[in-house]
Each structure stands twice: as structure tokens, then as C-alpha cells.
Amino acid sequence: MLSPIGFWSYSNTDDDHSRGRLSQLRALVASELQQKIGRKLKVNIFQDVAAIPPGAEWEKQIRDAIDGSFFLIPIITPALLQSEWCCQEIALFRQREATTLRRTDLIFPIHYLNVDDRDSSRPEDCHDAEVFRFLRSRQWTDFRALRHKNPESEDVARRIDSLADAICAALRRAERDPYAEEAREKVTAKAQDRVRADNDRRVRETEVKAETVQKGSEAEAIRAEEAKNSAADTLAREEARAEAMVERAREGTEAWGAAAASTDKRLIEAFLKDWPRGQHSAAAKARLQELAKHGVSAVTPILVGGISFLVFAMISDSTSIKISGPQMTIIVSVSVAIAGFMVWAIRYRGSRR
Predict the structure, then answer these.
(1) 196 to 134, 138, 228, 305: CA distances (angstroms)
(2) Do residue 141 and residue 246 come from a single domain?
(3) pTM above 0.70, yes or no
(4) Are 259 and 268 in contact (CB under 8 A)?
(5) Residue 21 CA from chain centroid, whole number
(6) What is the mean pLDDT of residues 98-108?
(7) What angle do CA 108, 110, 112 make, to 5 degrees?
(8) How many domains, the chain?
(9) 10 and 48 together in one domain
């Protein structure tokens, strides 16, 4: 069993501001540890205020105490992390633990004030970032919720009892063969490297798969959105085309209503030019034919009557026949009768067709 001599690393300002609670906690831990070890070995936990006499060389006393200690209890507080000398104490014992004692289980941090929000990269938060990272690698005894409680309370006693058990168990462990321990550490380190590499590979594979799935989902969403937009555009174009056709048909119907009521061939021809294949184009063409027939029937009687009158006039001139008034009336009547017969014949023929 290793000698039960330890080192209490703390910030004096914390002890002052807590009215000596850290010194009282050290005494309670030493007393509990002494009970567990028994009276064969004397427990001594070094504290600078209690162990360094006035006038002694302070730094030398600290170094000598660390060189003679077999376990370290750092009191984790913001002030400890900011203290240059506290960080040196921890670094010195860490070196002794690794080289002289060849152990990795003899540092027992007590988390007394919260430091979870401290940034090791900021000088105002931590004097030595490496010491802070090293401390985080060890198991801490959480005392934050108990620091305001009565030191004689059951909760405080149970937490101190648990800490004393851990220290006593570490001191009782058999000393290890340095060479066997070194070989074991190398094998363990290689195994840990392999496990770490395997975990990293799995994490990367998982990330790649997640990224692939995410990209696929995003691409699918984009395609769906494009299809939706395309369908909406097509529907809008079809609706616009249908509205235009309806409007065109309405305009054609209105134009045909105006043209159908007119006897002006130019208006109907203009309608056919604007709507050559509309629903009223056939009716417009029929209307043009009808107006053409009516035009012939209206002109023909006049032409026939005029021609007849001219013929009789020529005959009378050539034969020197004098035509009296009653005779002229008869001639005109005959001409009109002939013209009326021709009009009737034309209309009858048209109705037969």
C-alpha cells in the first residue's frame, strides 16, 4: 500500500471568502480516510497554510511536499484555474504520478465551484489550458450542491465517505511492474486508436449517408415543386387560351349580329375577312349570295324597261312613225310587263334552286 500522504491544492482566496470551509473540508477528508486505513499508518494531507511554518521558503516547501505526496486533491474553482501556482502544483504532481509512481489514478479533483462555462483558451478563464484539459480527463467528485450545507450533515458525510473510499482503494492497489505496465499502456493505446479510428469511420459514413439522403430529399422536393409550378403554368395558359377563345367567339357573334342585320355587302365581306373560319362564316357567305341575287333582281327590270323603250324609240325614228301619247303609254306598259316577267322568272328559278 502506498503511504497515505496527500497534497491539498486550492486557492487561498476561496478559503478566505468561504470563511475557512475548504480548510474544514480538508480536515474532514483526512479524518474519514484515517478511519478507513486504521492506526497503523498516519494520514497527512498537506495544506500550505497549515504545514508551512512562518519564515520558511514557501516555494521550496511546496515542491518538497509534492515530491513526498502519493495522491493529489485539487479543489476545482474559477480561482484555482486562474492561479499560476495552483496550475504548477497540478502539473508537478502529474509529472510525479506518471514518471516516479507510474500510475494514472492518484488525482482526485473536487468540483467545488462551477467551471463548466469556462473557456480554456481564454487567459482570463484559465492560466494553463493543458492543465484544465488534463483535469477534465479525471473523475471529479461533485461538491457544488453541498458547499453551503452543514459540514456535519449526512449528505456531506456520504460524499466525503465516497471520496475516501476511492483514495483508499487507489493506495491499496498493488504496485505495478513498470515494464509490464508500459507494454500494457501501449497495447491499450493502440486498441483505443483502432476503436477511435473505427468510430470516426462510422461517424463519417453516417454523415455521408445522412448528407446523401438529405440531398436526395432536397432534389425530390425541387422536382416536385418544379412539376407543381409547370402544371400550374400549363393550367394558367389553358385557362387563358379558353378565355381568349370565348371572348373571340363573343366578339364574332356580336359582329355577325351587326352584319346580318345590314344589307351592305362591304360590311359582310369585312366580317368574313376578320372571321373567315368562324361559326358564322357559312351564314355570312349565304347572306352575300342572297344580297347578290336581290341586287340582280332589282336592276334587271330597270335595264329591261330602258332597253325596251329605246328599241321602240329607234323603230319610230327609223320608220318615221309618229307615236302618240296613248301609244307611248302602251309601250311603257309593255316594257314594264316584260321587266316584271323577267323578275318573276329570276326569282322563281332562284327558289327552285
Answers:
(1) 19, 19, 47, 123
(2) no
(3) no
(4) yes
(5) 52
(6) 94
(7) 170
(8) 3
(9) yes
Task: Identify the residue with better confidence: 130 or 50.
Answer: 130
Residue appearing with cell numbers 461517424: 203
| Domain extent for 304 | 267-352
Q: Please check whether residues 48 and 116 belong to one and the same domain.
A: yes
**Max Cα distance, the chain (Å):** 184
Tell whether 154 and 186 lie within a shared domain. Answer: no
Burial 51-87 (b: 16+ CB within 10 A, else e): ebeeeeeeeeebeebbeebbbbbbbbbbbbbbbebbb
| Residues whose CB falls within 8 Å of the CB of residue 6, separated by 6 or more in sequence, listed in order | 43, 44, 45, 46, 69, 70, 71, 72, 73, 167
Q: For residue 331, how far is the Cα from the chain centroid? A: 105
Say if residue 150 is in the same domain as residue 34. yes
SS3 41: coil
CB 335 within 8 A of CB 329: no
Residues 108 and 13 in one domain: yes
> What's the gap between Cα 248 and its chain centre?
48
pLDDT at 247 > cutoff 90: no
Does 312 have pLDDT greater than 90? no
CATH number for position 67: 3.40.50.10140
Domain termination residue (choose one: 261, 294, 321): 261
Helix (H, G, I), strand (E, B) or coil at 45: strand
Could you tell me the three cell numbers for 76? 476545482
**What is residue 189's three-state secondary structure?**
helix
Co-location of 41 and 156 in the same domain = yes
Element (H, E) at 141: strand 141-142
Residues 6 or more apart in contact with residue 78 via CB below 8 angstroms? 113, 115, 118, 125
In this structure, are 142 and 271 located in the same domain?
no
C-alpha cell read off for 283: 351564314
